[in-house]
Write a structure and sequence with these properties.
The protein has 173 residues and is of the alpha+beta class. The protein has a single domain, classed as Immunoglobulin-like. It has four helices and eleven strands, in the order H-E-E-E-E-E-E-E-E-H-E-H-E-E-H. It has an eleven-stranded antiparallel β-sheet with strand order 1-2-3-5-6-9-8-7-10-11-4. The longest helix has 11 residues. The protein is globular. It starts with a helix and ends with a helix.
Length: 173
């Protein structure tokens, strides 16, 4: 798994809109962002949870991204910023319908992105995106470094249109 972690973006490369960035398009609960050009062009869609639990936990930004970086051969990279550092023992996962997708964290990869998680099996990225396009909600669960289990529910309304726009903005090379 460490080898996979080395292929993932460093904290400075993890996709999140910079302060002042505006979405190129909005699709219900999902927004499309496009940055750079040529080989350095990056496109991603971003969704925020419609429900979080527990309510009394202080957290930073919580969102899910699907990213394309055609110049680097990256397509459908699914990542989650959970708003807190994960526990090293956390086994986060996303569930869409009856299917679960295991994630690993920046803490486990030791890449410095302690509040981020990525799909454990990179070969399942397209499967997860397809499940999201067919589903109604995605539920993500993870455990913080303080031992708090959190559950975030994302609406998938608009994700199909958003992924089509993502594919058009940053087609695979």
């Amino acid at each position: 798994m460490l080898a996979i972690g080395l292929l993932l973006p460093l904290p400075s490369q993890a996709q999140s809109p910079a302060k002042g960035d505006e979405a190129v398009q909005t699709f219900s609960h999902w927004r499309l962002f496009v940055e750079g050009s040529g080989a350095s062009k990056t496109c991603f869609i971003l969704g925020e949870p419609t429900q979080t639990a527990p309510k009394n936990v202080k957290r930073g930004a919580i969102f899910l991204t699907i990213t394309h970086r055609p110049g680097q051969g990256v397509h459908n990279e699914v990542a989650i910023s959970n708003g807190y550092p994960f526990s090293a023992e956390s086994n986060p996962f996303a569930q869409v319908g009856g299917t679960e997708f295991a994630f690993f964290t920046g803490v486990q990869a030791r890449n410095g992105a302690d509040s981020w998680a990525w799909l454990r099996d990179l070969n399942n990225q397209t499967e997860l995106v397809t499940a999201m396009q067919r589903g109604k909600t995605l539920v993500f669960k993870g455990t913080s470094s303080r031992g708090t289990l959190t559950t975030d529910t994302y609406s998938l309304s608009g994700v199909t249109a958003a992924t089509r726009a993502l594919d058009a903005a940053c087609p695979a090379s």
